[in-house]
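As a point of orientation, let us examine one representative protein, giving the amino acid sequence and backbone structure tokens.
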Amino acid sequence: MFNIFKSKPKAARPIFAPLISDMHCHLLPRVDDGSKSEEESVTCLRVMKAAGFESVFFTPHYTIPRFPNEEQDILNRFSDLKLDIAAHGGYDGPQLLGIAGEYRVDPGFNDRIQQQKFLLVGGKYLLMEFSLHQQVMGLDQVLFDLQMKNYDIILAHPERYPYYSSSSHVLQHFKDMGVFFQINILSLSGFYGEGPRRKAFEMIENGWVEFLGTDMHNTLYAQALIDATHDRKIEKVIEKHTFMNRLLTHPEEANEKKF
């Protein structure tokens, strides 16, 4: 396996071992804006293992019209990747625990709710995202419709939505409705800027955050994750707080049976 990094990176420290599992990444090759090859995926996965993750869920984007992915195709690609990795031997990354999705609330989202076309994290959690640029209207109805169909909802990276503050009454309303929050680990390191970094720490201190995710896309993110393992402030967050990632330890057979 070739080294994609331009220079030899410093070694990652396994500070994320208490999380056990990463539940948000884009390392299924060539399906969205994440990894572009099997080699890049394996390189990133090895970094994740060195950072302490024992298992990982892939969560490719489902966004119309940019990433009009279909669940069965994604399941097939995930199976092919696992077979390809096994065939080459020598894999030393985290266990590929399952395939899910990061679903954008877009013009096709209501159809997905009606058809219940979702790949779930651990066969249980629906990972949902909003536009990073424009606030979505009518979210109360969307959340209500999902909950009426018994979905447990995780909102991906609320710290990255510029129209919400860390103490937004809208976010508080989501929490009151039982929505779980997932913060990007790299937000804590300032990878996305000072605003998301500050909000991420504040949301964690508010007790609003149940999950952490790498949101790993490529080797640029992998290098940033290595750097994050040397950030004492991030390490203190992992030591002080307990997150629900550790509960995601079983493959989600429900996804394969459904599609």
